[in-house]
Amino acid sequence: MIEILNVSKRYPLRHGWTTVLDGVNLVIEPGEKIGILGHNGAGKSTLIRLISGIESPTTGCVKRHMSVSWPLAFAGGFQGRLTGLDNLKFICRVYGTTVADKIDYVQDFAELGKHFKEPVETYSSGMMTRLAFAISMVIEFDCFLIDEVVAVGDSRFQQKCHDELFIKRKDRAMIFVSHHDGYIKEHCRRACVLAQGRLEAYGDVDSALHRYHQ
Amino acid sequence: MQEVATSTLRRSWAIQRRVIGALLVREMLTRYGRHNLGFLWIFVEPMIFTLGVTTLWTLTGMGHGSNLPIVAFAITGYSSVLLWRNMPGRTIGGLAPNMPLMYHRNVRVMDVFLARLLLEVAGASMSFVTLSLLFTFLGLVKLPEDLLQVVFGWVLLIWFGTALATFLGALNERTEAVEKIWHPASYLLFPLSGAGFLVDALPKAWQDWILVLPMVHGVEIVREGYFGSAIHAHYSVAYLIGFNALLTLMGLANVRYVSKNLTLR
Fold this sequence. Notes:
- The complex is a heterodimer.
- Chain A is of the alpha/beta class.
- Chain A has seven helices and eight strands.
- In chain A, β5 (143-147), α5 (155-167) and β6 (173-178) form a beta-alpha-beta unit.
- Chain A is globular and about 50 Å long.
């Protein structure tokens, strides 16, 4: 379970403070799929950062009783001069898991071939995202954070991602953050709308979408 | 991966050691890569510095106010500069390129600092030892009279460098003025740091003033260990330890503040 209790987040700007989140409450149960809808600048990414723990709330608290992933397919942590393999090893070391049994899986899944042992700064953006997705699947989490639709590669690759995430790991909790209807409709049983710093929870996706499009 | 109320000290230590290890490998690969000398650069780079300064001082016959061989003088002096001057250089602005790593919750600000500092300490220490051995072998320098004291002084200097680097590195996240000021400050501190003179050779009135600087104490301890009876060293272990402890405390407080207010830009 993840509890978001009365969380507010403010950032200092040159002309004063801006409030991005204002008294947000949310509980995510194990295995639950929940969507968070919001227009540009509504604070979706801020919420993801608070749930993932990279930033702390200004007031309130986030309690994690289950392990939470970094945002799925997030490539920002890659070091450009390191190879894909080095980056995989780094992640495995940080999370204290074995590397040897993951190498073939990642190389194969990300379809990098011999590029796997080249610096990632030489990768195309597609290769980068495929590697990032594959590495995201290497560490097992109770809850996955999915920031925007994971749409990488051709339809065959997307099918692979789908199987890996929604079939093999269908027992995990997932938090989807998006401004697209389709994805949330397909995967979530309930959804929230983020607007003016407040989070409004709805029991079903359709009501949330209705509110979102108002 | 329970996060609530289950982090015992021993488990935290195990995680932190693992994370620092991972960061260390990452830093080494990033900085030195796998080309030409590779990891050897860790101590070849500081060695070139020390050798260059040693050569310059020898050629110019720099007056250092003692009858010690200039080579021995340069090695003990300049090696210590590598510690306190280069360590803050690694932490100031060292967080920005590693910021996205904070998405992995086990990676903390202090881990990033420590990984970088460990590498710096290893480089400076290996360079110091290698050059000492090399010049001893060449007969230009005698072995230290009291090896234990050399190590003691060196460790205190490492502590000073670590504390200073932690403090400045974290402070720089709050105000970038630190980066602007540290460059000229470290440059100006170099001639005052005791690397190029013995405190005993200074006029009495200056000695008290120069001993306000903590690194001077460290260099004097190292030199007394190295040359023993040949020099008259001036230092206070208590002063250096007290200074280090205070600076460590202020550094950790700043790291704590920065960690709490981390913003991913």
